[in-house]
Specification:
Two copies of one chain form a homodimer.
Chain A lengths: L3 H5 L5 E10 L21 H13 L6 E2 L8 E12 L4 H9 L6 E9 L9 E11 L13 E2 L6 H9 L3 E4 L14 E12 L10 E8 L6 H13 L7 H8 L14 E8 L5
Parallel strand pairs in A: 3-10, 5-6
Antiparallel strand pairs in A: 1-3, 1-4, 2-3, 5-9, 5-10, 7-8, 8-9
Chain lengths: 275, 275
């Protein structure tokens, strides 16, 4: 004889979930969980979100993010996956997790993913935006969201330089030492600077944004690209400097690694998959 | 015989200075200096700016502000005066003070004012803006600059209500108890709601702003007006409720005092003066 209760309510199946996550990175020690030996774990996005999912779903989960954003870096569209067996309807999952998350991180969408979905391996492209607050005025209430650079920047020169980054190159010259990639070849699909800032407290033209999308980024690559474009925009580098950095693959020829606060992971695109 | 050095460099004359000041109020206990007995002084805008001016000009000054903004309230155009005798050229004063100010407050302009200029008494009108982040999405990086209200708001209804505030009225019904004004009559010149939010991370229409200007405001008046307009916008109050609150002068008929974070002192206008 079978147990009536068991047969009436089959156990939930283990499924793979895909989350799109936004956060203000200024109060986080980056995305990746950090649990130093003999010390309190650091406050990280993955740590906070994973612990919250565990509380909501009442089970341990392993949250794997597509991009290990650094301390202070923001995201509008980080992507992460985890496996869980739960009866919580998918259309209520984002709200259920958000209700327990702190105010500086948010689940934008929660989806059921194919069982073989891989948040890291299946990426086709990512887009970052670097915000430069480009006026002598102070950024005040958004100072943790922008890089304040008060010398004038020539956006046309920056775009001349940015266009030279587009294509498949070895970007070693735009990477910090210590990254562990064997190959540095990747493709930048678009790199463009534009004047922004049209809502209070930002007057039109007060911000310059560097948007860059591509299929892969080396360590600190977007921040070094932004730092190099700033050197071009202020007139210290010629736009052709980009070609020299690419050819030499020498980090020393590029501009500085500008601060994390200006950087935001905008979106991550994935190859189409059958469900 | 006169001292050559003394006659060559006459002592600077005492002059009155007018500052326009912007700040992110989230890390301040309001504008007004607070020095509780037997305790550390609280961090206030007036306290920080006054101490900084004293360091820069190497003399004690008394900074008098036009608006005693509450803890958490922001300003783009606070006005304050002080008297000092200094050789620092006026065109370098803002920069000199700013170089010693923390990142959340800024001198926008410094001017020499007429000796009888009175930052409080000579005000002709002030303008406040109340920012409502009106989407289920979280404000994340600007959460200290807006009031997050996720139910839909009907801006047309709000503007119907707002128009009823314009004119000379007794605004007692829109004031918190405890203000010490003998007369509550003042004139609202304009009160308008608009959809805003056109720069990242805010999508167009994600924000509703209540702008209100007038010749005087009672304690908490702008926050109570905003709270009342929100009740109208969400459908709990009819726009005619404004007339009832004005007629009854009863605070209990108005909406809640919404939080300080959404409020910004935009500008203060003064009567024309001969220099």
């Amino acid at each position: 004889m079978t147990d009536v209760n068991d047969s009436a309510v089959p156990p939930p199946t283990l499924r793979r979930y895909k989350l799109t996550i936004a956060y203000d990175g200024s109060q986080f020690h980056g995305w990746q969980k950090q649990e130093p030996p003999n010390a309190e774990p650091l406050r990280t996005v993955a740590g906070v979100v994973e612990a919250t999912i565990a509380r909501v779903l009442k089970q341990r989960v392993n949250l794997v993010g597509a991009s290990r954003t650094d301390a202070g870096v923001h995201a509008k569209g980080q992507v992460a996956q985890f496996d869980a067996a739960t009866r919580l309807p998918i259309e209520r999952m984002a709200e259920a997790i958000n209700s327990r998350l702190p105010a500086d991180v948010e689940i934008v969408t929660a989806e059921v993913a194919p069982p073989d979905f891989d948040a890291i391996q299946h990426v086709t492209s990512k887009c970052y935006r670097y915000r430069i607050f480009n006026t002598p005025r102070r950024p005040l209430g958004i100072r943790h969201m922008v890089y304040h650079f008060w010398h004038g920047l020539d956006v046309e020169r920056m775009n001349d330089a940015a266009a030279r980054l587009v294509g498949t190159h070895d970007f070693e010259g735009f990477a910090s030492a210590g990254h562990n990639r064997l190959t540095n070849g990747s493709t930048i699909n678009a790199c463009q600077d534009e004047e922004r800032g049209d809502g209070p407290p930002v007057a039109r033209g007060d911000e310059k944004h560097s948007g860059v999308s591509g299929d892969g980024f080396l360590y600190n690559m977007v921040r070094i690209i932004a730092g190099t474009l700033i050197e071009v925009g202020r007139g210290r580098f010629e736009p052709t400097r980009i070609d020299e950095i690419l050819a030499s693959r020498d980090r020393a020829h590029a501009g500085p690694t500008v601060e994390a606060a200006g950087l935001c992971l905008e979106w991550i695109a994935y190859r189409q998959q059958a469900m």
